Amino acid sequence: MSIEIKKYQQDVNFPSTQQMESSDEIDLRELFAVIWQGKWVIIAITAIFAIGSVIFALSQPNIYKSEALLAPADAEQGGGGLAALAGQFGGLASMAGINLGGGGGVDKTQMAIEVMKSRQFTSEFIQRHDLLADLMAAKSWDMANDKVIYDVDDYLVDTKKWIREVNPPFKPQPSMQEAYKEFSKLVSINKDKETGMVKLAVEHVSPTLAQQWVTWLVEDINKVMKQRDVLEAMRSTEFLNKQISLTNIADIRSMLYKLVEEQAKTIMFAEVRDEYIFKTIDPALVQEEKAKPKRALIVVLGTMLGGMLGVFFVLIRHFVRKED
């Protein structure tokens, strides 16, 4: 008797596998039936998203990308000579209170990349080439006349006046902090760890400006790094000459003269070479084809999103009504 009762409880509490499969099958049929009944709602939502994505894609301006491939300039920056002197005269230099440095020195290429990414270099670059309007107010590009079309709500071209409406602490004319953030979005600098090659790219609504900015960036970073090294070499030379006049020890004077010679080499190299840090392997070009937006992809993704939202809406509506 007890065995029959247990059997009865198992049958009541735990349905068979066949019953569960039947239940799942009914649920799937119900879902497909609900989706089929709400097909016009799904189609309508999908169509709205498809039309909206088309409008959005067409409203986006073409963005052109100009790239340049750069190689680190092969040159003696004085590091090798100084390292040799440090090994030869390290003891004497320590006695004289002079630090020749050691180790592998600073990677000039990486330093130049970081300088290009810095706020100071970017701000000076924008001001030097008067890029604020092209950076912050450019709306689209007139291909026929090769001219940038500016947003009239932000900038008046004729009077060169900023009229954009912003809340404090911002002002109608964008600050260098705003310009730096926008510039960082348009410029990319990537170094290949294996080859050491550097790829510099700029995106803009105008392919002409994109190409011009890449060219200017390469020229300016070479000039800035050259000026830094020349100024440092001149200061070092001045200091070393003072030390020469203050010592009578022959070995130390010999060491100091060689240091002065190394600084002279640095200055001479900088003066005779324009491509001081980067050599241009593949210069930037005015691109004929846009880099983005991918309008077809935008439309496809927008339509798919509309379809999925339509299905979710129909199913949620059905189950909410079912519970009520």
TrEMBL record:
InterPro entries: Bact_polysacc_biosynth/exp, GNVR, LPS_length_determ_N. GO terms for molecular function: protein tyrosine kinase activity. GO terms for cellular component: plasma membrane. The chain crosses the membrane at residues 40-58, 296-320. Pfam families: GNVR, Wzz. Residues 24-127 form the Polysaccharide chain length determinant N-terminal domain. It is found in: Cell membrane. Residues 279-318 form the Tyrosine-protein kinase G-rich domain. Coiled coil: none annotated. It is a multi-pass membrane protein. Keywords: Cell membrane, Membrane, Transmembrane, Transmembrane helix. Its main location: membrane. This is Lipopolysaccharide biosynthesis. It comes from Shewanella denitrificans (strain OS217 / ATCC BAA-1090 / DSM 15013). The lineage of its organism: Bacteria, Pseudomonadati, Pseudomonadota, Gammaproteobacteria, Alteromonadales.
